[in-house]
Amino acid sequence: MPSDQPSEFQEISHCGGKVTFHVETRPDGSRFFKLGWHSDRQGPAGIIGVYALPQGIPVARIVMGGIGQAWSDAPIEDCFTVLIGSDSEGRFGKRCPTCEKYWRTEGWATVCAYCGDRAPAHRFLTQAQLAYVRAYCARLSTALDIDGDHVIDMDAVADAVGRDISKPPFYYVEESQQNKFSCAACGSFNDILGSFGYCSACGTRNDLQEIEKKLGNLRQRINSGDPFEDCVRDAVAAFDSLAGRYVEQLIRQIPLTTRRKALFERSRYHDLKAVESKLKDAFDVEILSGLKPEEIEFAILMFHRRHVYEHKGGEVDEKYLADSGDGSVRLKQALRETKESAHNIVNLVLRMARNLHCGFHEIIPPVETPH
Hints:
This protein has helices spanning 127-143, 154-159, 207-223, 228-253, 258-262, 272-283, 293-311, 318-324, 339-363, and strands spanning 11-12, 18-25, 31-38, 47-52, 58-61, 80-85, 92-95, 102-105, 148-153, 174-175, 179-182, 189-192. It is α+β, with helices and mostly antiparallel strands.
């Protein structure tokens, strides 16, 4: 069945429209211009704006008010007002000034979706958008010498996508990525490479909402009779992966002593007690907060069993007996799970994931989304 969603890494054309500079000469001989944008094309379209030096260097985003409201002031005199159109889905490409990776969102970004670095919104323009800003400013500089209307035709840019023709001078496109998600915290759209990252509007990581989806699928598998041992393995593996990503970001963004950083070198996250101790020691994050002692004991056992399911074909080995203290089984016995034990570990993994997510964002709080 054909999908109404674009495939990965597909070119997304510009939304089109026309930017018009209307230049007039005042009675005193000075010139001024009026800026306009309009489009007769159907489909989503969005506009953002930046103030740029006449050389084509962006210096600030424009906060555009509603009807009858003034725009934000330029930070420097004699800046040009540059309008930037969205792609044909109403989204804008972004590029991190630190790690230089690309993604799309619906408006402005102040946080890199990948590395989490924060910067003023105009710093996240893509190379293609920066080239457009330079060409736009050059066109406006020339237009200011001649009275009348001067048009930048982005309809021609939109129509050129995918066609083997000479591209217009203002040509640029965006590209769909792999995971399109709306931030659970602020609702902003993000289209990122891979599965996990930050909301580029507010800085909330999406790992929790992604693991919630994964665990929801696991519950369906359990209820449909999938091997319960596989479901236990996959639930613990999901937390293992999530913990690794959060720790990687914490180490990257938080200065640590050599000793504390060494706690996580070549670290794995299948030993729940060790993980709990390290996270509390280094970051004061308590992943077992709110769990009863018997729930903690059960979770620790399931984390040990995950190793047996993943690496030993489900048969008890000496390491499992020594590490887990499980006296209910014998060496070489095949471990068995029940529907209840599988559901229990899924529920506990979700609670631990929420604890880790909240602890992470106590250290790295989200930012206010741009208006």
